Amino acid sequence: MATTKKAATKATAKKAGRSSQPRLGQVSSEIQKFGSVVELPIGLSYEARMYSCERLNRILADTQVLYALYKKYHWLMRGPTFYQLHLLLDKHAGEQLALVDLVAERVQTLGGVAVGDPRHAAELTRIPRPPDGVEEVPAMLSRLLQAHETILEDAHDAASRVEEEGDDGSDDLLVSDVIRTGELQVWFLSAHLVDTPTTVAR
Per residue in 83-104, pLDDT tens? Predict the structure, then answer.
């Protein structure tokens, strides 16, 4: 009797499509192409949302690469300022990672598709690829500053352009988060490239 009831329960579950077995190996066609936006009732035109997504995705790709550079140099740091720079670069990396999330979510809010795959970001970025090995510390810091400038120049221009399109949300994100964070990090990095005596004034 118990065996019959168990078999009936199993048959019912199977018929209802219920199972604890994960459905592995599923594939799907794209349901939204990169570079497109879906309609969302957020009070912005299709053209404004398309333009903002294009500009934000470029900044997003560059920011993902900058984050990766910060982590790389955090690991590769050396010399007498190792400890200070090791900690500083990791702090900056964390702040850049937070920006990645903010910018990506803004793209999604506009109905777009955010750059998510690092390989895709590598195709879109304008930040030059560094050597795979280790450079001297001043060169590593200089690369970070150059990457920041690339992003900041684009962010300043994008902020004014999206504001003209009426996209106040993207304008605020770019100014309040991307630009202010980037400028502050540039200040901290630049101070480590000043040639100044440590014990006796010249």
Answer: 999 999 999 999 999 999 999 9
**Per-residue 3-state assignment (H helix, E strand, C coil) for the chain:** CHHHHHHHHHHHHHHCCCCCCCCCCCCCCCCCCCCCCCCCCCCCCHHHHHHHHHHHHHHHHHHHHHHHHHHHHHHHCCCCCHHHHHHHHHHHHHHHHHHHHHHHHHHHHCCCCCCCCHHHHHHHCCCCCCCCCCCCHHHHHHHHHHHHHHHHHHHHHHHHHHHHCCCHHHHHHHHHHHHHHHHHHHHHHHHCCCCCCCCCCC
The angle that helices 46-76 and 137-164 make with each other, rounded to 10 degrees, is 170
Q: Which amino acid is it at 110?
A: L
* 167 φ, ψ (degrees, to nearest 5): -90, 80
pTM: 0.88
